[in-house]
Write a structure and sequence with these properties.
Elements (H helix, E strand, L loop, with lengths): L20 H9 L2 H18 L2 E2 L10 E2 L2 E8 L1 H25 L4 H4 L5 H5 L21 E10 L2 E8 L6 H14 L1 H6 L8 H11 L11 E4 L8 H11 L2 E3 L4 E4 L2 E4 L6 E2 L2 E4 L22 H6 L4 E3 L10 H4 L2 H9 L6 E2 L3 E2 L3 H9 L4 E5 L8 E3 L5 H13 L4 E5 L5 E6 L2 E10 L1 E5 L2 E4 L4 E4 L15 E7 L3
Parallel strand pairs: 3-23, 5-13, 6-7, 6-11, 11-12
Antiparallel strand pairs: 1-2, 4-5, 4-20, 8-9, 9-10, 14-17, 15-16, 15-17, 18-19, 19-22, 20-21, 22-23
Pfam families: CP_ATPgrasp_2
Organism: Terrihabitans soli
Protein name: Circularly permuted ATP-grasp type 2 domain-containing protein
């Protein structure tokens, strides 16, 4: 009988898939003590470098070291080729969707996407209507969460188009693997990811407004040190060689954005924003925000500064909109989606609601605007009481929920309890989209559910990460 879950290393049997042949041979010669020692070294390196994250709502409020597993996830060049084509297609279509709903709204007029899902969406920003960023690019950095169920079966689980995080873990994880296992890395034909920093910088600079100098000034806007992803903000600013600023460091004059420096005001042309839209500008959004800069949206609308990603992109990574992405791809590109969606039941629809309520013990139920693994029910693993609690929540506000079948997610070996054990994984590739086209570094951040049997990979829910190797053909 075939295993219930497809294993990235063993496939459906007890053998070894081609991508892992070299690793398996190396593993046979590696003493257990070596592996355990390298795992401890990896944790020490993460602590030394300061690779941390914070969990909102944690009573201790302390930053934590993200768990890192030293067993790599390995993909073949063929697998990656298909994935990358699907990722590029998806991001292109979602970008066209954003350009349309803030412009002509042809997809809404055609009835492909219900109007209320856009206009009543909390991430829809009417301030962005008829505002077209340079090159018509709204999404410069996307993190697309992908899961695998079989040899050639990949599904998109979620589109992250606002402030996708995790790329620092991807880059640091690769550096640590090269440092700890140089002999193993040398035996493999692993495609590099260290060019991501240059690709990101080129993407950001390509988005400079008309009239900007050839070398535009780029700044990363962070909410500050208390933000859960602050480590990544400072890491990226340092690697990119750009300014790390908070809202108080910026001011707007004559619809132009300036940064306060010791040498006086410095014009800023591109802002890589890691702040939620609501807090960008108290004059445009939340008046109580102290994280952004007054007048920032006015400067953006005037075309004097580019904000990456564009305000209002969140409407396209909503979980209800997600269910329409295959239709969005078809509408704008005239193509079928290369990467499949997970089948999704919309509780806003009577048929979807009835099915969900009748199959709560089989489905994963998610809040339409939820994230980070919060606000969801994993039916097969939930108690009867938890399912009943969710039933009442759904009935109170059906439009706030979608439901999906519990896919048989692939597993990947992790070093645990003195040996290798399977754990469920997903993959977040990072897609860069600038005026000069789409760039995707080979691989991405593999997130792993370190608890046996768990399907939740988020670091805030006890998940960890591992390096992702894409082999050249």
């Amino acid at each position: 009988m075939s295993p219930v879950h497809f294993d990235e290393m063993a496939g459906r049997g007890s053998g070894c898939r081609d991508a892992y042949q070299i690793f398996k041979h190396w593993l046979k010669t590696a003493p257990q003590a070596l592996l355990e020692g390298r795992r401890e070294e990896a944790e020490l390196l993460f602590r030394k470098v300061g690779i941390t994250f914070a969990v909102y709502g944690d009573e201790e409020g302390e930053e934590k070291i993200i768990p890192f597993d030293i067993v790599p996830r390995i993909l073949t060049g063929r697998e990656w080729g298909s994935l990358s084509r699907g990722l590029e297609q998806r991001v292109r279509a979602l970008n066209l969707f954003l350009k349309d709903i803030y412009g002509a709204r042809e997809i809404l007029k055609a009835g492909v996407v219900p109007q209320d899902l856009v206009f009543q969406n909390p991430y829809y920003r009417p301030q962005m209507n008829n505002v077209v960023p340079p090159g018509g690019v709204y999404v410069q950095v996307a993190g697309i969460d992908v899961v695998r169920t079989d040899e050639d079966e990949f599904y998109v689980l979620e589109d992250n188009l606002r402030t996708p995080s995790g790329v620092s873990y991807m880059l640091e994880g690769r550096e640590i693997m090269m440092r700890l296992f140089p002999d193993l890395v040398a035996q493999q034909r692993i495609l590099p990811i260290d060019n991501y920093v240059n690709e990101l910088l080129n993407t950001l600079k390509s988005m400079a407004p008309e009239g900007a100098p050839q070398d535009p000034v780029v700044a990363l806007l962070t909410p500050g040190q208390l933000n859960s992803a602050y480590y990544e903000h400072s890491f990226l600013a340092d690697r990119l060689g750009i300014y790390l600023v908070e809202g108080r460091d910026l001011f707007v004059r004559d619809d132009m954005v300036y940064m306060r420096t010791t040498q006086g005001p410095q014009r800023v042309h591109v802002i890589y924003s890691r702040i939620d839209d609501d807090f960008l500008d108290p004059l445009a959004f939340r008046p109580d925000s102290i994280l952004g800069a007054p007048g920032l949206i006015s400067a953006y609308r005037a075309g004097n500064v580019t904000i990456c990603n564009s305000p209002g992109t969140g409407v396209a990574d909503d979980k209800a909109i997600y269910s329409y992405v295959p239709d969005i791809v078809r509408f704008y590109l005239g193509e079928e989606a290369i990467l499949k969606n997970v089948p999704t039941f919309r509780c806003r629809d009577e048929e979807g609601l009835n099915y969900t309520l009748a199959h709560l013990d089989e489905l994963v139920v998610k809040e339409v605007h939820g994230s980070g693994g919060y606000g969801m029910l994993v039916g097969p693993h939930a108690t009867k009481e938890a399912r009943e609690d969710f039933r009442h929540r759904i009935l109170a506000n059906p439009a706030n929920y979608i439901a999906q079948p519990t896919l048989s997610l692939s597993t990947c070996p992790v070093l645990a309890n003195g040996g290798l054990e399977p754990r469920h994984v997903d993959l977040r590739p990072f897609v860069l989209n600038g005026r000069d086209g789409v760039r995707i570094v080979p691989g991405g951040l593999t997130r792993v559910a370190l608890k046996a049997g768990s399907l939740v990979v988020n670091s805030s829910q006890g998940g960890g990460t591992k390096d992702t190797w894409v082999l050249s053909e």
